[in-house]
Amino acid sequence: MAVISLLMAAGLRMLGASAGHARKTAADTFIGLVEQARSMAISSRSITVLAIAEPGDLPAADERCRIGIFKINEWPTDPTTLDGILIRRWHALPSGTVILPGAVNGLRNPRDEPETLIRYLAENQPTQGRFFTIAFTPRGGLLWPTGSDPVVLRIADGTYRGGQPSPTPNGAAHTIAENQFKIGRIVARPYRSDG
Fold it and tell me: Angle at CA 27, nearest 5°, toward 52 and 167?
């Protein structure tokens, strides 16, 4: 019994370390994609959109969140429907990570905003999907969601159930391990805001 208890404790520690590693990888991927979208907006002098696709938004069969970068030729007065070009393939975040809704310290979360319909070509076929979006101006500022304050995005350990994020509580205190990123309005760079 003692040996089984030790093995179970070691396994739980390894599982927790694995989840933390997946969240760090997801956070690094997100930061890189925000920087890439912002740089593309500046270099192409066009509006660029970072689209967050949750399970069920794309035909993928797994329960992973994906992020795509779109070039938008013309920004409409009502940005609930956009016509764009998918710049590169969709980037899947690691299994065991979710993007959570919820404001942080009064800052809005793009995950809480209404989804945007984006029409684009995929494998030379007209395609469309509804995604949570962050848009960058040709000068590298934040265009969408609108407002004057920065926005915040939350990445946590967890899984998707029925297309909805379900964070995994850690430890006896049942706290949610997450990383929070503030994206500035004028210079839309992501900064960790979780300490």
Answer: 75
Distances (CA, A) of 83 to 70, 80, 133: 9, 10, 13
Q: Which long-range contacts (CB under 8 A, 24 or more apart) does 167-172 make?
A: 167/98, 167/100, 168/19, 168/96, 170/16, 170/19
pLDDT per position as a tens digit, 57-109: 998 878 899 999 999 989 999 899 999 999 989 999 999 999 999 999 999 99
State how beta strands 116-122 and 81-86 pair.
parallel
Place of tokens 């967050």: 52
**Cβ pair 34, 183 in contact under 8 A:** yes
d(CA 126, CA 134): 22
In angstroms, the Cα distances linking 31 to 16, 53, 125, 132, 161 are: 23, 16, 30, 16, 25
CB 115 within 8 A of CB 97: no
* Rounded distance between C-alpha atoms, residue 139 and residue 63, angstroms: 35
Give the pLDDT of residue 15: 45
**pTM metric for this prediction:** 0.86
Structure tokens at 10: 């070691």
Q: CB of 180 within 8 A of CB of 137?
A: no
Pair 178, 192: CB distance under 8 Å: no
